[in-house]
Specification:
This protein is mainly beta. The chain folds into 4 domains: about 130 residues, Immunoglobulin-like (Sandwich); about 160 residues, Galactose-binding domain-like (Jelly Rolls), CATH 2.60.120.260; about 220 residues, Glycosidases (TIM Barrel); about 110 residues, Immunoglobulins (Immunoglobulin-like), CATH 2.60.40. The protein contains 9 helices and 46 strands. The strands form 11 sheets. Strands 21-22-23-24-25-26-27-30 form an 8-stranded parallel β-barrel, surrounded by 4 helices. Strands 3-2-4-9-6-7 form a 6-stranded antiparallel beta sheet, with no helix packed on it. Strand 26, helix 7 and strand 27 form a beta-alpha-beta unit. Helix 2 runs parallel beside helix 3 and helix 4 packs parallel to helix 5. The chain is globular. The protein binds beta-D-galactopyranose. The site of beta-D-galactopyranose has 10 residues, from loops. Belongs to the glycosyl hydrolase 2 family. It is an enzyme of class 3 (hydrolase). InterPro entries: Beta-gal/glucu_dom_sf, DUF4982, Galactose-bd-like_sf, GH, GH2_Domain-Containing, Glyco_hydro2_dom5, Glyco_hydro_2, Glyco_hydro_2_AS. Pfam families: DUF4982, Glyco_hydro2_C5, Glyco_hydro_2, Glyco_hydro_2_C, Glyco_hydro_2_N.
């Protein structure tokens, strides 16, 4: 036996190079062609005249808006079509003894990949991560390799929102030895957790491609957030039966004393480093960040995290990054999350597809709970060419890959197998629900599975009747929530989607205190609204299937068994411009607009969802003389608010229980509106809004002045149009031009107006209601970036950023 072991070990050493896993950023230097040219898959194809670019890349966002684009305004009226990508590369020395994998985090959609002319396969789903083993097709030694990717987003419409087109997420090349941990090859869970100890279970999947039995040791070391050693788990030592050729999974465990639990307030992460040793040499090292937490959904008491009851205060988010389109950028994702965190949001639903892996890593680090959703449709379509055409063939693999990829993220607490799935309404929903839940449970039993349902009559809802969901996800239907426990005895409640309130940032129609639903039930889906495609930003307009922000929050807040909600939507997103037709091309649903500027409702949530002191006053103070204007204040940490107009009191207002704002009706006169909040007679906060004069200058507010010189980092610069006294000019729409000198480039401009047809990539953009945004991207070089903003008739303004 011993002798046999040494022979095998000697044989293996031929296969195993001393280098371990190498991960190569495969984003730089691709060639791109917008159009179809099937000969581009041939390795010898001359792509010299193609455009050179770095991934991630979304060609749709670079295009012009047009009503004629087949994607329609529901997909932001941007171009789609077919595109080709090619990259010529060489492999590092020693690669011939290793396995070479290419990993794509997401390609929208129908990607087909060739390496050196060999066809690797097709992946229709535009949101899943996938990879190919390209070892057999690589040319030997230092020879050049060519990868070609065809992306086909030409069959339209295929989505209800903007998808982007292209290789819009990261790509990497992974080189491993012939015995290595498989892709997504660890699974770390903590089935027993208390204050003293966490028992941590580790599953490691070894991929042994030597074709022979492998021997060695597999172990995982746990480090705390400061990098200090915590404990070690050993899977298997010399002398055991050996790793069979192919893939095999080993389970083992370790204990962590006095574990620090992951929570939304303290998102504490441990790191597991799994090593594979063969012949005394480490042949692979695989790092898995993870967190230790436990949670529960209780029929009566709702949600608790680490034993502490809390509500899930969530929003739904699509994947686009506004002016940057779908192209993944970590800083842009982090900014969105920071803005939501500051509002008090603690959870996000990834509507309606798996997110980018970096986005989940940010949620782990920043402390968000995630509902990770798989599908917007199954076999039955919502659009002619959507995923329904691929569902039968691909749903198993797509769902499995999502769970395998995302299962170690402490942020992910719920899997959703689908949003408003049509199979709710017919009996095929029963077996499909059972099958999909089974696919998830075969891989992960530590998280509940839900589906976002709309049909509330259980006799008509076949997904419900499958009786396979752990949580009953309900979209809208808020009037039924108080009676939920009587209607659905024993079921655990989650409002998977709520509100669909509508608003344009900074636009106000009077009166504020009557709620309107668009379109009125039974009416044709037309826009009875404003000629400038605006919707009032008092929280009093909503889609008829939803409610204002206050209406649903009032219900959720009252009952513990209502474990939480996901507001539709956190940010405005590209596409679905309800209630307007073209030229509207992005949504009105966001609590925050497309450019990242909060609408007023943001402060309602902030006053309810955080303990920060809030006093927010609306609207602006520029009206026609004598007009009756409704003035609202959102406030907290105070008993009352008094409003003054030009130093005359307009009265004191107090919120009654379950009120979320106070209102005064004021006859407009120019001057100063001032709100003062008080607690026990003492001033807590004051807020002043002055009548603004004409635009006089530009105020430049970068969210970040020091950038990483990595070719990716971003500074989001807000341009505010001020009068000569420094007041924001509320309706200002001055055209702003940006000029950049030095180590930066313009990544995009936006103003948050959903019916703007200006290109996001142009260097000039109008302001909307006084604000404009320019996104500056660092070059991979250190130095200064001088950014100058100009606008006709106004002095220009400059800021200097630095890259390090
Ligand atoms: C829901 C749907 C969302 C979005 C929303 C708009 O029914 O799940 O994707 O379309 O309506 O109100």
């Amino acid at each position: 036996m011993k002798r046999y072991f040494y022979i095998v070990a000697a044989l293996l050493s031929n296969y195993i190079a001393s280098a371990q896993r190498t991960i190569i950023d495969f984003n730089p230097n691709w060639k791109f062609w917008l159009g179809d040219t099937s000969i581009a898959k041939e390795p010898g194809y001359r792509d010299d005249n193609w455009r050179t670019l770095n991934l991630p890349h979304d060609w749709s966002i670079e295009g012009e808006f047009s009503e004629k684009n087949p994607g329609t305004p529901n997909q932001a009226a941007l171009p789609t079509g077919i595109g080709w990508y090619r990259k010529t590369f060489t492999l590092p020395a020693g690669a011939e003894n290793q396995n070479v994998f290419i990993e794509f985090d997401g390609v929208y959609r129908n990607s087909e990949v060739w390496v050196n002319g060999h066809y690797l396969g097709k992946r229709p789903n535009g949101y899943v991560s996938f990879g190919y083993d390209i070892t057999p097709y690589c040319n030997p030694g230092s020879a050049q390799q060519v990868i070609a990717v065809k992306v086909d987003n030409s069959l339209q419409p295929n989505s209800r929102w903007y998808t982007g087109s292209g290789i819009y997420r990261n790509v990497r090349l992974v080189l491993t030895n012939k015995i290595a941990i498989d892709q997504w090859g660890t699974f770390i869970t903590a089935p027993t957790v208390n204050n003293n100890v966490a028992i941590v279970n580790i599953q490691s999947t070894i991929n042994n491609t030597t074709g022979q039995l492998g021997h060695g040791t597999l172990f995982t070391t746990i480090y705390d957030a400061s990098g200090k050693y915590v404990s070690k788990g050993i899977a298997w030592l010399h002398g055991a039966p050996g790793w069979p050729a192919g893939k095999a999974t080993y389970s083992y465990s370790t204990a962590i004393n006095k574990p620090i639990l992951w929570s939304v307030e303290n998102p504490y992460l441990y790191k597991a480093v799994t090593k594979v040793m063969v012949n005394g040499k480490v042949v692979d090292e695989y790092v898995t960040p993870f967190g230790i937490r436990y949670f529960d959904f209780d029929v009566q008491k709702g949600f608790s995290l680490n034993g502490r009851p809390m509500k899930i205060l969530g929003v739904c988010m699509h994947h686009d990054l506004g002016a940057l389109g779908a192209a993944v950028n970590e800083r842009a994702m982090e900014r969105q999350l920071q803005i939501l965190k500051d509002m008090g949001c603690n959870a996000i639903r990834t509507a309606h597809n798996p997110p980018a892996p970096e986005w989940l890593a940010l949620c782990d680090k920043m402390g968000f709970l995630v509902l990770d959703e798989a599908f917007d449709m199954w076999h039955k379509k919502k659009n002619k060419f959507d995923y329904n055409i691929d569902f039968d063939q691909w749903h198993k693999q797509d769902l499995e890959d999502q769970v395998k990829r995302d299962k170690n993220h402490p942020s992910v607490i719920i899997w959703s197998i689908g949003n408003e799935i049509r199979e709710q309404f017919d009996s095929t929903g029963i077996p499909l629900t059972k099958e999909l839940v089974g696919i998830v449970k075969a891989l992960d039993t530590t998280r509940p599975v839900t589906s976002a349902l709309t049909e509330t009559d259980t006799t008509k809802n076949f997904i419900y009747q499958a009786n396979a969901l752990d949580l009953m996800g309900m979209n809208y239907n808020q009037q039924l929530y108080p009676d939920f426990l009587q209607r659905y005895p024993g079921k655990k409640f989650l409002a998977t989607e709520t509100m669909s309130a509508l608003a344009s940032r900074g636009h106000y129609d009077m009166p504020a205190d009557s709620v309107r639903f668009w379109p009125l039930k039974g009416q044709k889906f037309v826009s009875p609204g404003n000629p400038d495609y605006t919707v009032s930003a008092y929280d009093n307009v909503a889609a008829y299937w939803g409610s204002t922000h206050e209406q649903t929050w009032r219900i959720i807040k009252q009952y513990d068994f209502l474990s939480g909600l996901f507001v539709w939507s956190g940010f405005d997103f590209l596409g679905e411009p309800v209630p307007y037709p073209w030229p509207a091309r992005s949504s009105y649903y966001g609590i925050v607009d497309l450019a990242g500027f909060p609408k007023d409702a943001y402060y309602m949530y902030q006053s309810e969802w955080t303990s920060k002191t809030v006093l927010h006053l609306l609207p602006h103070w520029n009206w026609e003389a004598g007009k009756e204007v409704d003035v609202w204040a959102y406030y907290n940490n105070a008993d009352e608010v008094e409003l003054y107009l030009n130093n005359r009191s307009m009265g004191v207002r107090k919120k009654q229980p379950l009120d979320f704002h106070v209102q005064w009706r004021v006859k407009y006169e120019p001057g100063t509106l001032k709100a003062v909040s008080r607690k026990n007679g003492n001033i807590v906060s004051t807020k002043t809004i002055n009548t603004a004069g004409i635009p006089a200058r530009l105020e430049i507010v970068p969210d970040k002045k020091i950038l990483h010189a990595d070719g990716k980092d971003l500074s989001f610069i807000t341009v505010r149009i001020l009068d000569k006294n420094g007041n924001l000019v509320p309706a200002a729409d001055n055209k702003i031009t940006v000029e950049i000198v030095g180590k930066g480039t313009l990544a995009g401009m936006d103003n948050g107006y959903p019916a703007s047809l200006e290109s996001f990539k142009a260097a000039s953009h109008k302001a909307y209601n006084g604000l404009c945004l320019a996104i500056i991207q660092a070059k991979p070089e250190t130095g200064n970036i001088q950014v100058t903003f100009s606008s006709p008739g106004l002095p220009s303004a400059t800021t200097v950023l630095q890259t390090h």
